[in-house]
């Protein structure tokens, strides 16, 4: 969740824009719902009274009857029990009006008496529910037939009950509704965050796939099987780009290999002619050194080409100590010539690895040559062989940590004007190490104060 939140903080991220959209739209939507409910809740008691009066009017109308004298009466025996009729006479009344004559056939309380609710109610009112203007009285009118005569039956009620209902019921309803809407809004936000996370996750997975494709892994492609359709064009475009890059890189490798092959023979002829037919002089020595430097670069380009195109099918089991001893015996004269103290320590004589002997030889040789090149005269170099691990350390100046990744790049040198090397040795070494389940590391924790390289096999 912390990683997800850190992603949506960026104002330029799609997740942030979606979150703003969801929060804004949700706030407006639920705000409108709350406002609408509050406005409706103000009429809740009125709606309740209207429905209540409809039921009361229908029930009272059904209680009308004609007695033995031919007069219309209202049987209020059940009304007292259900509606508290005797207690409601001060705010509840009824009347029966003959439609043809507009005569009042029945009235709950005589006119002009205290509590006569119909004193201010006109005979000419609409049917159904009606609220008397400028009055606290509501009336419900229905049409009934008694003894083949048509009547209006009116039931009037004081709005005091509506006010009491508003005061008693409305606050509770508003509180409950507000809480429900607020909780729903929280759920909406939670679902929004989850939805955004579901949107961001596939793009994050796609990014991770892209990050795992290193320069040396140009043959890899993005797996589009589980990619959402919205991101599929990006993944396909990335795979197409990798196809083109890999094709260009293959052309580059072929060009380097072809150029190195073509240059090696003329350089060898030029060096032989210079050494055999040119008199000794300072210029001759400088030209010989220059040609040897160029020849060394050509040889390393060929080594790099072979490393990149090597088929590791011819792998055999070798003792690390056997290969390292052979390399040290060949390199020792160069170390002695530069007055270096070269030490070989074998901690595990029987440690074996499954490698190509030629590739392992080049790995160790390049590390030793690198140590000799960067160690001053009279310095110390130590090679240690332990369980599936080779370390080469020296007493040079070490390598600044900021360059620990760059030193394995092709043609990289801290000082580009330095003619001591071509910048290919460590690149070739890393390329060869990548052929196996192994790693190469560099640090400045040499026992002599210089750099320390470690090649470890995980077999």
Automatic annotation (TrEMBL):
HAMP domain sequence ranges: 197-250
Domain of life from the UniProt record: Bacteria
SMART domains: HAMP, HATPase_c, HisKA
Membrane topology recorded in Swiss-Prot or TrEMBL: Multi-pass membrane protein
Entry GO MF terms: phosphorelay sensor kinase activity
Coiled-coil residues: none
Primary localization class, coarse: membrane
Pfam families xrefs: HATPase_c (PF02518), HisKA (PF00512)
EC number(s) recorded for this UniProt protein: 2.7.13.3
Transmembrane stretches, start-end: 18-40
Reaction(s) catalysed by this chain's protein: ATP + protein L-histidine = ADP + protein N-phospho-L-histidine
Subcellular location, record wording: Membrane
Domain Histidine kinase: 258-459
InterPro entries: HAMP_dom (IPR003660), HATPase_C_sf (IPR036890), HATPase_dom (IPR003594), His_kinase_dom (IPR005467), HisK_dim/P_dom (IPR003661), HisK_dim/P_sf (IPR036097), Sig_transdc_His_kin-like_C (IPR004358), TCS_sensor_his_kinase (IPR050428)
Enzyme class at the top of the EC tree: transferase
Record-level GO cellular component terms: plasma membrane
Keywords: Kinase, Membrane, Phosphoprotein, Transferase, Transmembrane, Transmembrane helix, Two-component regulatory system
Name of the protein in question: histidine kinase
Record organism: Paraglaciecola psychrophila 170
């Amino acid at each position: 969740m912390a990683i997800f939140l850190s992603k949506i903080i960026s104002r330029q991220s799609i997740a942030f824009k979606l979150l703003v959209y969801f929060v804004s739209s949700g706030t407006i939507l639920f705000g409108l719902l709350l406002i609408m409910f509050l406005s409706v809740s103000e009429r809740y008691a009125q709606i309740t009274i209207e429905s209540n009066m409809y039921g009361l009017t229908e029930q009272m109308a059904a209680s009308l009857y004609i007695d033995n004298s031919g007069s219309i009466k209202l049987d209020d025996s059940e009304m007292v029990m259900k509606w508290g009729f005797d207690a409601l006479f001060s705010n509840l009344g009824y009347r029966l009006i003959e439609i043809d004559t507009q005569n009042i056939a029945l009235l709950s309380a005589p006119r002009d008496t205290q509590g006569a609710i119909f004193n201010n109610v006109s005979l000419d009112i609409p049917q159904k529910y009606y609220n008397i203007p400028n009055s606290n009285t509501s009336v419900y009118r229905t049409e009934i037939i008694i003894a083949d005569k048509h009547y209006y039956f009116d039931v009037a009620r004081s709005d005091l009950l509506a006010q009491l209902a508003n005061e008693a019921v409305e606050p509770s309803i508003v509180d409950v509704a507000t809480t429900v809407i607020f909780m729903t809004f929280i759920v909406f936000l939670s679902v929004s965050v989850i939805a955004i996370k579901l949107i961001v996750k596939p793009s994050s997975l796609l990014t991770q796939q892209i990050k795992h494709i290193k320069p040396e892994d140009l043959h890899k492609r993005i797996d589009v099987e589980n990619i959402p359709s919205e991101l599929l064009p990006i993944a396909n475009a990335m795979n197409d780009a990798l196809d083109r890059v890999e094709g260009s890189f293959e052309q580059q490798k072929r060009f380097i290999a072809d150029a190195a092959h073509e240059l090696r023979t003329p350089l060898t002829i030029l060096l032989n002619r210079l050494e055999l037919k040119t008199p000794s002089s300072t210029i001759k020595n400088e030209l010989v050194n220059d040609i040897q430097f160029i020849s060394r670069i050509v040889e390393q380009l060929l080594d790099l080409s072979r490393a990149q195109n090597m088929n590791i099918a011819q792998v055999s089991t070798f003792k690390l100590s056997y290969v390292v001893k052979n390399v040290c015996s060949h390199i020792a004269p160069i170390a002695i010539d530069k007055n270096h103290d070269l030490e070989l320590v074998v901690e595990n004589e029987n440690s074996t690895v499954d490698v190509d002997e030629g590739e392992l030889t080049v790995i160790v040789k390049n590390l030793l040559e690198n140590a000799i090149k960067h160690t001053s005269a009279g310095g110390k170099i130590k090679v240690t062989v332990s369980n599936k691990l080779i370390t080469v350390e020296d007493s040079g100046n070490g390598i600044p940590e900021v360059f620990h990744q760059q030193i394995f790049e092709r043609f990289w040198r801290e000082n580009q004007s330095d003619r001591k090397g071509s910048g290919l040795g460590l690149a070739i070494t890393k390329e060869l190490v990548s052929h196996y389940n192994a790693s190469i590391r560099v640090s400045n924790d040499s026992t002599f104060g210089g750099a320390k390289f470690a090649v470890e096999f995980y077999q």
